[in-house]
Fold this protein.
Amino acid sequence: MKRFKINEKETGEAAEMEPMSDEVFDKELQSLMEEEKKGKKKKKRLHKKWSKKRKIITIGAAAIGVFFVAFKVMAGGGSMAVPVTVSPLAKGEVVEMLSVSGPVQGTDSVEVVSNLHAEILELPVKEGDRVEKGQILAVLDDKDAKKEVDIAQNAYDLALSTYQDKQLEAENGYAKAKQDYETAKANYDRTLALFQGGSASQVELETASNAMNDAQREMSSYTLKDGRPVANESYSLQIEKEAFELEQKKEALNNTKVTSPIAGTVVRVNCKVGRFADKTDDDKPMFIINNLDVLEMKINVSEYSIGKVAIGQPVEISADILNGETARGEVTAISPTGEEKGNGSTERVIPTTIRIIDQNTSLIAGITAKAKIELQKAEDVWVVPISAVIQQPDGSTAIACVKDKTVTFIPVKTGVESDIQAEIIPDEEGALTEGMQVIDAPSSMLTEGMEVTVASPVQ
């Protein structure tokens, strides 16, 4: 059987057919197959949705093989099996991951500010210092604050003294009014008895009655609380007002010692000795304190993926600072509401928190890290490359296997998927066996029963 090699001329003349031996022909075929495979290895695999993964994959190597087969048949009337690459079927593990990036930060962060217009006298801490709750971060000039406390104290003392005076007046006045009423009532009762006996006139009785009523009105003008007279409410309100002002001034005096509200690490100092506490660099807080004992990540998960994310899922965390190593994490919180993604996108995102479990790493707060959330995991299942699963004309999915040098299709369903692998479940029990030859990337030109040859994998 004669075979020919097509030689194209640079002059634009018609190509010539150069005779080829079987050995040369087979070498040309193998060379093209290897070049095609090497080219594929260099391509970066792109993450696609399952609908895209199911598209029929046409492999260039298979097309080249078919071209050579057709050429050999046309050239000599013979036939040749289509070359395919296969992998032995085996059980393994498939993990579906969701990759999201976000900042690393402490689990607790506070901004320390001061509204006192007071000069900073001392700064006993610097960035990177570990501080305890209540530890002094800055000392401010307290001269003005002390004067304000003295003024407020005097105002309070005056209000209290006034109240006490008015209270004493109320008690004495009420006691006199009560005594006057009792005397007037006794006089009225005596005059009434005389009037009834004909010994007192009507005018005398009315005079005694008016005196008693006047005394009763005077006694009723006093406010009683639990049966005791009290000063006018305005005096007690004034005491409350002055007491509040005094507490405010005392608090301001206490605040001349700026302290840390939490235990943590000083990550930012935006103030300097000699400047005023309420006039910091770019109006930033005086200090930022982070609890770096436990780090976490704040990420935004797409509304299209959040349905698969759950609290407690394990997370693998990577960052440039880890130099190729990873840290373990866990999903600890998922916001009950979504928010705009931004940049004009209509997509919504859901804030999610990841607690970093491995704390003895080189991770630091303030950097960006990549989190891979383990959404689903299948163990001890049949696993094939994503490209091995094809969609048939009727919409079902299958894998193509080589049995007795011919193609056979086995209907399967898919389970958990990663970026490169998929769990497969046969429609018929027992249809899959360990070690069976699964075609890595079946061409659409393959048909049931077609003769194929297994090509050697490229090293």
Remarks:
- The first helix runs from residue 22 to 42.
- Helices lie at 22-42, 50-53, 60-76, 143-196, 202-220, 233-254.
